[in-house]
Amino acid sequence: MSTGSPVGSHRVVSPAGALPQAADRLDDQPDIADNEVRVSVERLNLDAASYRRLRTDHAGDGDAVRAEVRDIVERRGKMHNPRTGSGGMLIGTVDAVGERSPLGLRAGQRIATLVSLTLTPLRIYDGLERWDGLTEQVPTSGHAILFARSIAAALPGDLPEALSLAVFDVCGAPALVRRVVARRSNPAHAPATVAVLGAAGKSGSLSLAAARDARAATVLGIVRDRDEAAELEAAGLADRIAVADATEPLALAETVTGALDGRGADVTVVCADVPGCEHGAILSTAAGGTVVFFSMATSFPAAALGAEGLAADVEMLIGNGYVPGHAAYALHLMRHQPGLRDLLTRRTEAAA
Q1: pLDDT in tens, 38-58
Q2: Global confidence as pTM
Q3: Do the bridges between strand 152-154 and strand 88-97 make them parallel or antiparallel, or are there none, so unpaired?
Q4: Distance between alpha carbon 240 and the CA centroid of its chain, in Å?
Q5: Residue 285, SS3?
Q6: Phi, psi at 127, each rounded to 5°
Q7: Which H helix or E strand runs over 336?
């Protein structure tokens, strides 16, 4: 048994020299190197931006969505949406562990992967026949490969699997929000005001909970309609709630500043899974503030050039999905904030 590259470069079929995430195709064969782990796949969770784009492109035709996802996996050896550049993550059971794997996993352990499907070798066995193409969560059978520098977490016994999968999919968001808000709320600054765009979604609601946990002065949730506002109010996660279209920059900035007593947010978190939120987020942020982009629909050129063109003195961060301890922290929030768990449970059940 050979030893593979810890970052998985030995699995890249093309182009030569690329890392797995940037590769056009990965080697999905089941034989593992001595530092790899093979997982028997049970369910995929497509990221929100990727699924929304697939469903929009196919006008809500679930059969067509299923066919395209199946084609992507078969063609690329991974789930990597070519239009959004994103994928998702999965749950399954550890099937085989190489003797030199540093991940601490054991055969028979049920896990969620905490790395993107865009860099995870994946093979599907059942043609996705149990999935109707109408939800982000995809029941299936197959195998996936984890590298020495992959990340995985054992599934908790006190949460439904579908809920665990939804939380783990976005667990990098609350951990980074907590870090950013705590940093801005140090003795040299007044406690931060935080605005979350797309606040009723998975990453948005967890980000609200994290901002409050980090002792933000005011937590503002921006949602797209009155139904989401009522849902968020029932969860009790935000101090203030406002309805606005995050893709309309001037109207969004007016809504945020109006809700925050005439000034922008110290920290603006973008969790809306639609393109075109960059400029509104920048305009909604106070001078010297921070914008955190978690949506996979974010355009780096639009954000960078937009901030320059607006002469906006803001720090911009791209949430990379990994902060040490992120999975445990997301579960902590779920267990200690009943409103958060109730909201995400309803969302998960609606998507089932």
Answers
A1: 999 999 999 988 999 999 999
A2: 0.88
A3: unpaired
A4: 24
A5: strand
A6: 65, 15
A7: helix 326-336
